Amino acid sequence: MLKNRSHHHPAEKLEQTSNEAGFSLMETAIALVLMTIVGLGAASLFYYSVRNTSSTGDRILAMSVAQQKLEQLRNVSFSDSTLAATTGTTSTVTRSGRQYSVETIITDSNVVSGAATLKTITVRATPVADTSGGWATNVSSYFGSVKLMAQRSALTVGPNRN
Protein backbone atom coordinates (compact mmCIF):
# COMPACT_ATOMS: atom_id res chain seq x y z
CA MET A 1 0.00 0.00 0.00
CA LEU A 2 1.35 3.29 -0.98
CA LYS A 3 1.14 6.08 1.43
CA ASN A 4 -0.35 9.23 0.25
CA ARG A 5 2.34 11.78 0.46
CA SER A 6 1.17 15.28 0.45
CA HIS A 7 3.29 17.86 -1.14
CA HIS A 8 3.90 20.96 0.89
CA HIS A 9 3.03 24.25 -0.49
CA PRO A 10 5.97 26.79 -0.51
CA ALA A 11 4.08 29.10 1.89
CA GLU A 12 3.78 26.24 4.39
CA LYS A 13 7.54 25.55 4.13
CA LEU A 14 8.33 29.21 4.84
CA GLU A 15 6.15 29.05 7.97
CA GLN A 16 7.94 25.94 9.13
CA THR A 17 11.45 27.46 8.85
CA SER A 18 10.47 30.57 10.78
CA ASN A 19 9.82 28.39 13.85
CA GLU A 20 13.40 27.03 13.90
CA ALA A 21 15.57 27.88 16.93
CA GLY A 22 18.66 30.14 16.73
CA PHE A 23 20.37 33.23 18.13
CA SER A 24 19.02 36.66 17.43
CA LEU A 25 21.23 39.63 16.76
CA MET A 26 20.38 41.06 20.21
CA GLU A 27 21.43 37.87 22.02
CA THR A 28 24.71 37.81 20.12
CA ALA A 29 25.42 41.47 20.98
CA ILE A 30 24.74 40.87 24.68
CA ALA A 31 27.06 37.84 24.69
CA LEU A 32 29.77 39.91 23.00
CA VAL A 33 29.46 42.66 25.63
CA LEU A 34 29.69 40.12 28.46
CA MET A 35 32.77 38.51 26.91
CA THR A 36 34.39 41.95 26.54
CA ILE A 37 33.80 42.73 30.24
CA VAL A 38 35.33 39.39 31.28
CA GLY A 39 38.28 39.95 28.92
CA LEU A 40 38.97 43.39 30.37
CA GLY A 41 38.90 41.91 33.88
CA ALA A 42 41.48 39.32 32.88
CA ALA A 43 43.65 42.00 31.24
CA SER A 44 43.63 44.10 34.41
CA LEU A 45 44.73 41.06 36.44
CA PHE A 46 47.58 40.50 34.00
CA TYR A 47 48.67 44.15 34.34
CA TYR A 48 48.52 43.89 38.14
CA SER A 49 50.69 40.74 38.18
CA VAL A 50 53.31 42.27 35.85
CA ARG A 51 53.46 45.39 38.00
CA ASN A 52 53.93 43.39 41.22
CA THR A 53 56.57 41.19 39.65
CA SER A 54 58.57 44.29 38.74
CA SER A 55 58.17 45.67 42.27
CA THR A 56 59.35 42.36 43.71
CA GLY A 57 62.50 42.51 41.58
CA ASP A 58 63.19 46.01 42.88
CA ARG A 59 62.68 44.87 46.45
CA ILE A 60 65.10 41.96 45.98
CA LEU A 61 67.75 44.30 44.58
CA ALA A 62 67.10 46.78 47.43
CA MET A 63 67.68 43.94 49.91
CA SER A 64 70.96 43.11 48.18
CA VAL A 65 72.10 46.76 48.29
CA ALA A 66 71.21 47.07 51.99
CA GLN A 67 72.97 43.80 52.87
CA GLN A 68 76.11 44.86 51.02
CA LYS A 69 76.24 48.18 52.89
CA LEU A 70 75.62 46.46 56.23
CA GLU A 71 78.39 43.93 55.56
CA GLN A 72 80.80 46.76 54.73
CA LEU A 73 80.06 48.35 58.11
CA ARG A 74 80.34 45.03 59.95
CA ASN A 75 83.79 44.38 58.49
CA VAL A 76 85.46 47.60 59.67
CA SER A 77 87.06 47.99 63.08
CA PHE A 78 84.71 48.98 65.91
CA SER A 79 86.71 52.19 66.46
CA ASP A 80 86.86 53.10 62.74
CA SER A 81 85.56 56.56 61.77
CA THR A 82 82.97 55.04 59.40
CA LEU A 83 81.19 53.71 62.52
CA ALA A 84 80.93 57.13 64.17
CA ALA A 85 77.44 57.94 65.44
CA THR A 86 75.35 59.69 62.77
CA THR A 87 71.77 60.85 62.53
CA GLY A 88 71.71 59.65 58.94
CA THR A 89 73.85 59.76 55.83
CA THR A 90 72.35 59.17 52.42
CA SER A 91 74.08 57.94 49.28
CA THR A 92 72.91 56.74 45.88
CA VAL A 93 73.86 53.32 44.53
CA THR A 94 73.14 51.91 41.04
CA ARG A 95 72.53 48.18 40.61
CA SER A 96 71.31 46.54 37.40
CA GLY A 97 70.56 49.91 35.85
CA ARG A 98 68.35 50.98 38.79
CA GLN A 99 69.17 53.66 41.36
CA TYR A 100 68.72 53.12 45.08
CA SER A 101 68.87 55.66 47.87
CA VAL A 102 70.78 54.19 50.81
CA GLU A 103 70.34 55.81 54.24
CA THR A 104 72.67 54.76 57.06
CA ILE A 105 72.08 55.60 60.73
CA ILE A 106 74.58 54.63 63.44
CA THR A 107 73.64 55.00 67.10
CA ASP A 108 76.02 54.62 70.06
CA SER A 109 74.63 52.99 73.18
CA ASN A 110 75.84 51.41 76.40
CA VAL A 111 78.51 54.08 76.96
CA VAL A 112 81.16 53.07 79.53
CA SER A 113 83.85 55.57 80.61
CA GLY A 114 82.94 57.89 77.73
CA ALA A 115 83.22 55.18 75.06
CA ALA A 116 80.37 53.29 73.43
CA THR A 117 80.47 49.53 73.79
CA LEU A 118 77.46 48.91 71.55
CA LYS A 119 76.52 50.40 68.19
CA THR A 120 73.23 49.95 66.38
CA ILE A 121 73.50 50.17 62.59
CA THR A 122 70.37 50.82 60.53
CA VAL A 123 70.48 50.68 56.72
CA ARG A 124 67.47 51.55 54.56
CA ALA A 125 67.61 51.02 50.78
CA THR A 126 64.83 52.55 48.70
CA PRO A 127 64.43 52.34 44.91
CA VAL A 128 64.43 55.81 43.37
CA ALA A 129 61.16 56.45 41.51
CA ASP A 130 61.20 56.60 37.72
CA THR A 131 61.08 60.10 36.29
CA SER A 132 59.07 58.77 33.35
CA GLY A 133 56.01 58.34 35.57
CA GLY A 134 55.92 54.62 34.92
CA TRP A 135 55.02 51.80 37.28
CA ALA A 136 57.53 52.85 39.98
CA THR A 137 55.82 56.03 41.11
CA ASN A 138 55.08 54.62 44.57
CA VAL A 139 58.09 52.39 45.25
CA SER A 140 59.34 54.54 48.10
CA SER A 141 56.42 53.31 50.15
CA TYR A 142 56.62 50.70 52.87
CA PHE A 143 56.57 47.91 50.28
CA GLY A 144 59.35 49.35 48.10
CA SER A 145 62.07 49.93 50.67
CA VAL A 146 64.13 47.55 52.76
CA LYS A 147 65.35 48.30 56.29
CA LEU A 148 68.04 46.20 57.99
CA MET A 149 69.35 46.61 61.54
CA ALA A 150 72.40 45.10 63.22
CA GLN A 151 74.28 45.63 66.47
CA ARG A 152 78.02 45.59 66.96
CA SER A 153 79.75 45.36 70.29
CA ALA A 154 83.25 46.38 71.31
CA LEU A 155 85.79 43.71 72.10
CA THR A 156 86.70 45.45 75.36
CA VAL A 157 85.76 43.98 78.73
CA GLY A 158 83.23 46.00 80.70
CA PRO A 159 83.96 47.67 84.08
CA ASN A 160 82.16 44.98 86.10
CA ARG A 161 84.31 42.15 84.77
CA ASN A 162 87.53 40.87 86.36
Describe the structure.
The chain has 162 residues and is α+β, with helices and mostly antiparallel strands. It has a single domain (25-153), classed as Pantoate--beta-alanine Ligase, Chain: A,domain 2, CATH 3.30.1300. The protein is built from two helices and four strands. It has helices at residues 10-18, 25-74, and strands at residues 86-95, 98-112, 115-127, 146-153. It has a four-stranded antiparallel beta sheet with strand order 1-2-3-4. The longest helix has 50 residues, at 25-74. The chain starts with 9 loop residues before the first helix and ends in a 9-residue tail after the last strand. Mean pLDDT is 78; it is low at 133-137.
